[in-house]
Design a protein that fits this description.
Helix 2 packs parallel to helix 13. Helices cover 76% and strands 0% of the residues. It contains 19 helices and no strands. It is an all-alpha fold.
């Protein structure tokens, strides 16, 4: 397993460097390495490494959600008030479109299409977070809180989608009793997730001040507590719903609000951990792609991704009607809502694994995984290019003296390299 880890890290870093030279997100190369070294092509990865792939992807997702929580402040959210409907509605538009189109384009059932819609409906913190931080540094759109709006909405959108995905997967595999329970439980899980996360963050602040560990140890404690919260969600899911990933992000939020300097130190080190976690995340998900199924899903999969994005853009536009944003700024937010990567990589293989464990036909799970990876390959580089191209043309620099997003905080806590 050590040899496999060394190979994927070295090749991923080399390809990441080459792709960034031509302004392509390195995660695309990492996915390709996973596909190439995986069991469906060269089959050179150690089976023991593949066996712990889910846990590695989970750690990567926790890392980026913690990172996002440390970038969301109360002041920035106040500037974005009235526009936070961006959180559920665009995802619902996209998920509903894919649910309706899946049976016709991919031959899935409506329930399987809904699972695919939940996988595809999230946007990528790995692409969006660093680019919005870059625009905060440049002062683009900060007087209207646009980068923070996208940053916060992207993170909350992912939690909403992941919670809905968990509900649908549990219903599909027979682990939950009814859709009514799942729908009502969704809101309860969000409330509990926020509450537990805030309380946990306050407790951690007191412990950190009491024992005064170094920032690196604080990061390790945060990761350990976050993993425990995720495991706790699985342990109690039969009794009450709990959005562990939302709790994880709330921890970062409350530490930023209560102890800003501590939050920036932790966030900077999380950014360094993300360099390694990102490699494992995208290589491991690429290794699970069945090339034959991906080829079969090709044009139909690309069509459903594109149509889903059109529906999402319509949802974004509807949400922004009546706001003070002009047409150019609305178009920018629509573009910023296109990249897929982190969440698709983290949960794209979950239906396949669940179907296999339940003894069900795994072909729908392979289709879902293939389309999830296809969405990353198609939207991550194009979305990153489009955001970078659109920002200087659609967003205005903040006027002198106007309230802006926390530039100092963004610079100090920056830990993820920007894409092009």
């Amino acid at each position: 397993m050590v040899n496999s880890l060394a190979e994927i890290v070295i090749f991923a870093l080399i390809l990441d460097w080459l792709l960034r030279k031509i302004h392509v997100p390195g995660l695309v190369g990492m996915l390709c390495i996973g596909v190439l070294f995986g069991p469906y092509v060269l089959n050179t990865l150690d089976p023991d490494l593949l066996a712990i792939g889910y846990d590695l992807r989970l750690i990567a997702l926790i890392t980026i959600l913690l990172r996002a929580g440390f970038e969301i402040s109360t002041a920035a959210l106040r500037r974005a008030k009235g526009k936070m409907l961006l959180v559920p509605i665009p995802a619902l538009f996209e998920g509903a479109a894919i649910t309706l189109l899946g049976p016709y384009l991919l031959g899935l059932t409506y329930m399987q299409s809904a699972l695919l819609g939940a996988v595809l409906a999230a946007i990528s913190p790995a692409v969006v977070v660093p680019m919005m931080i870059r625009f905060i540094q440049e002062g683009r759109g900060t007087h209207k809180g646009i980068p923070t709006l996208v940053l916060a909405a992207a993170s909350l959108d992912d939690v909403f989608v992941i919670t809905a995905f968990s509900a649908l997967l549990g219903l599909y595999t027979g682990h939950q009793a009814s859709m009514t329970w799942q729908v009502s439980g969704l809101f309860l899980s969000i409330i509990l997730g926020i509450g537990v996360g805030l309380l946990t963050g306050l407790i951690l602040i007191r412990l950190f001040e009491w024992f005064n560990p170094r920032a690196t140890k604080r990061v390790l404690v945060l990761l350990g507590v976050s993993i425990f919260l995720v495991r706790f969600e699985y342990a109690v899911e039969e009794w009450f719903p709990f959005a562990a990933l939302l709790a994880v992000m709330a921890i970062g939020f409350v530490i930023l609000e209560q102890r800003e300097h501590m939050a920036h130190e932790i966030s900077a080190r999380l950014g360094k951990i993300w360099v390694f976690a990102e490699i494992l995340l995208f290589v491991m998900v690429g290794a699970q792609v069945n090339i034959n199924v991906a080829w079969e899903a090709g044009l139909a999969g690309a069509a459903i991704v594109a149509l889903g994005l059109i529906a999402r853009s319509a949802g974004v536009y509807v949400c922004l009607l009546g706001t003070q944003l002009n047409l150019r700024e609305r178009v920018f937010i629509m573009i910023a809502y296109t990249p897929k990567a982190t969440v698709q990589a983290a949960i794209g293989a979950a239906p396949l694994a669940a179907m296999r464990m339940a003894g069900m036909n795994t072909y729908p799970g392979e289709v879902i995984l293939a389309v999830a990876v296809l969405s990353i390959v198609l939207t991550a580089p194009v979305g990153a290019w489009a955001i970078a191209f659109a920002a200087p043309r659609l967003l205005e620099h903040a006027p002198p003296g106007s309230p802006q997003d926390d530039l100092e905080a963004a610079i100090e806590s920056e830990g993820i390299e920007e894409y092009g």
